[in-house]
Amino acid sequence: MTKKIIFLDVDGTLVNYDNYLPDSAVEAIHAAQAKGNLVYTVTGRSKAEMYPPIVAIGFDGYIGGNGSYIEVGGEVLKEATLSLAETTKIVDWLQSRGLEFYLEANSGLYASRNFEERAQPTIQEYSQRKGNNREDMTVRKAFPDLIFDADLYRNDINKISFILEDYQDFLDAKKAFPQLQAGTWGGVGERALFGDLALGNIDKAVAVAELLTHLQIPVADSFAFGDAKVDIPMLAHCGTGVAMGNGGEEIKEMADYITSSVDDHGLWSAFQHFALI
């Protein structure tokens, strides 16, 4: 059997947006590995957000920060971060506009002074737009290891996310930092609740290509699973692109195959369909 490599987005693919991890997904991953296949996560999360239930699954490696970090079998293959000067400039710009934010690093998530208070209604809306009508959702539940009162001028940052008071904030950020990659995220319909800034010329597809080259695995033997627009380049690059049933219309339209939702055992079903288990 030719060894396959499987790339899994995390939020909306491996887990739902309430961080529920189906047993069937874990079983599918282990069965695929037992058959000789490799399984990697490819996520916007920094390593600090890869919480114990996910790490405990036992992946063959990890791509984080939407492609800025690559880990293979516990060894770091790539770690690209914003410079101290870039982070300082972004932090000062956000603070000058009164925008609350958090810095994403493998060492932790570092929040601005008033992030928790300001983010509360935004996090609730984000949760609701992902189909989880939880009035008890809080910033601390969404980000359990968020660090406050830390030095925000750092040289280990993968990405910076900030609350949008208006869509114009995103447009202005994109204009203010043309050398960086600007994006938005926020729930069903990809509504822009947050903006983010990261290094330019880095995305999930770039990282997947680098990893395939390193492992000397043909593109044709790769499978990518995702649910959002940020996953589209990865699905387009891999030999087979699979959209989750709970995914957005854009990714479903371009995918080679649409499986069922996270909650309806989408990973297990697709792994069976493609004889990965």
Walk me through the structure.
It is a single chain. The protein has two domains: 5-80 and 202-273, Rossmann fold, CATH 3.40.50.1000; 84-199, 2-Layer Sandwich (Hypothetical Protein, Haloacid Dehalogenase-like Hydrolase, Chain: A, domain 2), CATH 3.30.1240. Helices cover 32% and strands 23% of the residues. By secondary structure, the protein is α/β, with parallel strands linked by helices. Helix 2 (52-55) links the parallel strand 2 (38-42) and strand 3 (61-64). The protein is globular and about 55 Å long.
- Assembly type of the shown chains? single chain
* Whole-number mean pLDDT: 93
**Approximately how much helix is present in the residues?**
25-40%
Q: Find the count of extended strands (DSSP E, 2+ residues).
A: 14
CATH H-tier superfamily of the largest domain: HAD superfamily/HAD-like
CATH architecture of the largest domain: 3-Layer(aba) Sandwich
CATH topology of the largest domain: the name is Rossmann fold
Q: What features would you highlight for this structure?
A:
Hypothetical Protein, Haloacid Dehalogenase-like Hydrolase, Chain: A, domain 2, six-stranded mixed β-sheet, 32% helix, 2 domains, 10 helices, Rossmann fold, 14 strands, eight-stranded mixed β-sheet, alpha/beta, globular, single chain, 277 residues
